[in-house]
Predict the 3D structure of the following.
Amino acid sequence: MFNFIEILSVSLILFSVIDILGNIPFIIDMRKKMGTIESGKATIAAASIMIIFLYLGNVMLSLFGIDVESFAIAGGIILFLLGLEMVLGRNIFKSNPHLSKTSSIVPLAFPLLAGAGTLTTILSLRAEYYHVNILVGIIINSLLVYAILKTSKWLERKIGEGGFDILRKVFGVILLSIAIKLIKTNLNL
């Protein structure tokens, strides 16, 4: 069941979709407005949402009469659009700019880290990978998210805005490739 290649693939896919590095400018802006971000609270909330969706997502789908393959194709389309956003620097999906006192949960943990793209990806990954490998990928990404949230000020100084733009575009191309593979696989092409 444990497969290093699958864990690595899942981890990279989730890392691309969560796009924690690309979201650092938003995180820094939120930290300036709110004064602080509770990194642990945000990470635990996002990981919990992802894990619950990993195991109960199919139940939710069955309530609507949707099969995993159809959801995976829809997820592939969403991933494709997210990849386009990253590569082209255009916003296709709109986010809620209003911040509340629960900013570590909303909008940071949900929908920024564990949003529609991430949840769709998790269900799409279920069509190709073992659950345990996806779970390990979620945990690895949660640890990375926590580390990046904790060091976001330092990262901002070291990498700079241009460096983040390059990383965002690279992960965007990877995400586009993953989206096409998901669509092809589930269309049986």
